[in-house]
Design goal:
With 393 residues, the protein is mainly alpha-helical. 83% of the residues lie in helices and 0% in strands. It starts with a helix and ends with a helix.
């Protein structure tokens, strides 16, 4: 990869890992501060509650003001969030930090992903590259904070390594690739697809992103707690290990099957991730380690394959306005990351966790069942658009 692509990839890893660094320390907050599972759910939902509106209302700012300015604003917000975490002394501090972190990712994610997508030059499909960067970002934060905790950082200094990395981003932002435009018209050099073709493609890619990130979220909501309970573990590395295992499976499958057409990979990966969630419920209910391990591989691999496919489709269809398209992609992904987990919490409050998990998994399976029809619609719009461009040329 060239310098601009490397800078964009590093920026994504550092920012996203900063937002996930808190996840491995929840067990420590519970032990030292006595915060409940409900409190942890609030901290999690606040993050998504600021991230999604930022993506919806400000995801296209990079198209107007430039990627470097928008990313800089995101880095400032993330630095503020990390600073608050290092000084946190109660639930309110955690909530404030997560608000800033949600705004940071909401501002910067689309712009950085677009910059990486356009500046990348390599043999691997861009969807697989983007998924690999996202996977590394998701597990790096929990691992760094868990290691720092075990080295004596406690619940405050464990965030310092990540905080330093975020501050270092200010020196890297000037090297980010801005959108390539015609100097005369100030319009993108890429010829954009028509709105109908973009909508047709996103009608398939966004549900795939929703399901794949939902699978990851439900895995993380169940497995780290299961490990902590069965192993009676309070070490943050236990939960971090579950995150690493799922993301390594994601990376392995995404690269091994990189030559599969994104439309086929999106459906296949989504089906495998749903099968993994079903097996996960069975394994944790029966306390069967072989089932839990196999479920980890299925959920991680399936989610990675589906996410890479939807990344690739968004990158292909977003030419001319990739920052905006990727912002829409992240809305679907983070909605999948949050809404199913929230639904489980609400249903479980009146029934049981196993029943709630089963209901949400069934709802995700229904979305997967509709994907073949959505794929047909996508192909129809895209083929018509490509034929039109060929005739025009």
């Amino acid at each position: 990869m060239n310098t601009q692509a490397v800078v964009a990839a590093l920026a994504i890893v550092i920012l996203v890992s900063g937002s996930t660094s808190i996840s491995s320390l929840f067990v420590s907050y519970r032990a030292q501060w006595g915060i409940s599972s409900a409190d942890i759910a609030i901290v999690f939902s606040v993050y998504v509650g600021s991230l999604l509106p930022t993506l919806v209302f400000f995801g296209g700012l990079a198209e107007r003001f430039g990627r470097r300015r928008v990313v800089t604003a995101g880095v400032v917000a993330m630095a503020a969030g990390m600073a608050i975490l290092t000084a946190a002394h109660g639930l309110g501090w955690l909530i404030a930090a997560r608000l800033f972190q949600g705004v940071a990712i909401g501002l910067a994610a689309g712009a950085l992903t677009a910059a990486l997508s356009e500046s990348y030059r390599g043999k691997l499909p861009i969807g697989n590259v983007l998924q690999a960067v996202a996977a590394v970002a998701l597990f790096t934060g929990p691992v760094i904070s868990a290691i720092a905790f075990n080295l004596g950082g406690g619940i405050h200094l464990s965030y310092v390594p990540q905080f330093v990395l975020v501050l270092a981003l200010f020196a890297l932002v000037p090297f980010l690739a801005e959108r390539v435009t015609n100097p005369v018209t100030a319009q993108p050099v890429d010829q954009p697809f028509s709105p109908a073709a973009v909508r047709g493609a996103l009608r398939f890619a966004l549900p795939v992103a929703f399901v794949s990130w939902a699978g990851l979220s439900l895995f993380l909501s169940l497995v780290p707690a299961f490990l902590a309970n069965t192993l009676h573990a309070t070490n943050p590395l236990v939960g971090a290990a579950a995150v690493v295992a799922a993301q390594l499976a994601s990376l392995t499958v995404a690269f091994a099957l990189r030559n599969i057409a994104p439309e086929r990979a999106g459906i296949g990966g989504a089906v495998v991730s749903i099968a993994g969630l079903v097996l996960l419920v069975i394994g944790t209910t029966m306390i069967s380690w072989p089932f839990v391990i196999l479920a980890t591989l299925l959920v991680g691999g399936g989610c990675g394959l589906a996410s890479a496919a939807s990344f690739g489709i968004a990158g292909r269809i977003g030419r001319g306005h990739r920052a905006l398209v990727f912002s829409r992609w992240y809305i679907a992904a983070y909605a999948g990351y949050s809404i199913p987990a929230l639904a489980i919490g609400l249903i479980a409050a009146h029934t049981s966790f196993a029943f709630a998990f089963s209901v949400v998994t069934a709802a995700l399976a229904a979305i997967v069942a509709a994907l073949p029809a959505l794929r047909s619609g996508q192909n129809r719009h895209l083929v018509a658009e490509l034929n039109f461009m060929a005739c025009a040329a």
